[in-house]
Design a protein that fits this description.
- The chain is mostly helical.
- Helices cover 56% and strands 0% of the residues.
Length: 78
Amino acid sequence: MLRNLLIGQRTISTASRRHFKNKVPEKQKLFQEDDEIPLYLKGGVADALLYRATMILTVGTAYAIYELAVASFPKKQE
């Protein structure tokens, strides 16, 4: 019974119990450096992979739309 009473008194908290180091100043310094690297690639390998995947998907989608448009207007046979 005591156990049930203690469980009933627990407070529900959405706050995380882990404390993380504040990385914002480090990231600000990284992104404000003038090192001729585009902003969208300053995050490292992960950013480069995401950028390339986005470009591949964009170009592939554009090509697919182009091919659908070409296929929807058949050539006239004379």
